[in-house]
Amino acid sequence: MATRTFTYDFSNEASGFRKKSSFPSGLFINGSSLINPTTAKSLGHITVASERDIDIAVEAAQKAFNTTWGLHTSGQQRGKLLIRLAELIEENIDELAALESLDNGKAVAIAKSGDVQSAADVLRYYGGWADKVQGKTIEVDEATLAYTRHEPLGVVGQITPCSGNGNTVVFKPSEWTPLTALRVASLIKEAGFPPGVVNIVPGLGNVAGSAISNHMGIEKVAFTGSTPVGRAIMKAAASSNLKRVTLELGGKSPTLILDDCNLDNAARWAVFGVLFNHGQTCCAGTRIYVQDTIYDKFLEKFVAVMKAVKVGDPFHPDTFQGPQVSKTQFDRIMNHIEIGKKEGATCLLGGQQHGTEGYFIQPTIFTDVKPDMTIVKEEIFGPVGVVAKFSNDEELIALANDSYYGLASAVFSESLPRALKLANALKAGTVWVNTYNTIRTNVPFGGYKQSGQGRELGEYALQNYTEVKAVHVNLSGPPPF
Ligand code: NAD
């Protein structure tokens, strides 16, 4: 098994990170070419794990769980390591943000303040929780002591780096964006985690991903990705060892623009909701419902803000929208745009490739849409929003909830009672009022309906990572016969 090194010279990029990045890119089995979405050219080769590699990673994780981690390391010590890793991520934030922009295409400023800083924040938050996960004593009767323990599950297969409860991890990043995960692998080692606690296995979904979800030695899979793959993972869990599954899946989230909103703010947030992360956001606000009395005024402002967004090189400091992550995604989005036109919607803005190089797509708005159109129903996962009218709140609730997804939503109104009434009626795991995309480490995030199962973040996520054991102790002697 040969070891590869990934090297990239950032000195010509405007990212603020001016050095070379070089780190082991893991085990090399069947090299897969990694593409730079800004230029559509290869960045070099990366490792992809085979089924056998997943077995090796699971064995290492099981060994660590049974010997050094799990119940063998105190919560306090596990917490210290997570917090140390958070510090190391912050110390290397410029490099990690530059790497994230390189393979994902997202604007480097957003990668830094959003993704990389959030990763550090999440590690620090759960580092704080690590010694505060505890069971209860339960009053039964004088002759019985009953209590619960919240025990770690064992090996968790996941794509988010969190092991605060004593579980060990086999983590497969996306084949399109493995770089930061591989760089963080060196930081995990530097932080002092025992070997085998976190194992990073970049690979293809139908090989490495499938091996994880079918593995008999993995107790839980935390999956973030599309709804069809989430379905496949549940099936694999059901037909292997009934492992626990939490799913963070796709969405088609509604943004509700009411006639009493602050129009300027609503237009800006609505654009942010569609274009954040070049539209490659699970919770993107891509269905925009506008009250008929303010429709024309809102649309004018919304289009003006969209037109002003800088699309281009993710390393340029003014860029908000970079390229789509891959040719596959680019083609999928362009295909949805064509379907939208064919089904009779009006393409009011954009609808074409931006420039001629790389996977850039113009910010795109469709109007004159009907509820059963493909572009209203399906997640596009690109910089494409649809705008429709409503006349009263009852009609609005029906339109907003007319989706098999239920990840997020937003309400724009200056009337708090009206906004909160709508917030209660929306079938979505998150409702933003007069904002969009504000995700906090200590607030749960997850989906209703086919947008997922379970919650990540905050105290709510902890229950996904422990088993509750009930212990009954008889204090009074023989059985009653
Ligand atoms: P995807 O479902 O194609 O891939 C996600 C991951 O699953 C990748 O690591 C992939 O290799 C793996 N995979 C693919 N086939 C598999 C299989 N058969 N078995 C096991 N693993 C497999 O999704 P994507 O295109 O990388 O990401 C976009 C999707 O992710 C969108 O639908 C988006 O909404 C969703 N997403 C959801 C959240 C959330 O928190 N709800 C966050 C980000 C993205």
UniProtKB/TrEMBL annotation:
A Gene Ontology molecular function term of the record: aldehyde dehydrogenase [NAD(P)+] activity
Gene3D superfamilies (UniProt xref): Aldehyde Dehydrogenase, Chain A, domain 1, Aldehyde Dehydrogenase, Chain A, domain 2
Statement: the UniProt record of this protein carries the keyword Nucleotide-binding: no
Keywords, sorted A to Z: Oxidoreductase
Sequence similarity: Belongs to the aldehyde dehydrogenase family.
Organism the protein comes from: Hydnum rufescens UP504
Protein name: Aldehyde dehydrogenase domain-containing protein
Domain Aldehyde dehydrogenase: 34-471
Active-site residues from the entry: 248
Keyword Amino-acid biosynthesis included in the entry's annotation: no
Domain of life: Eukaryota
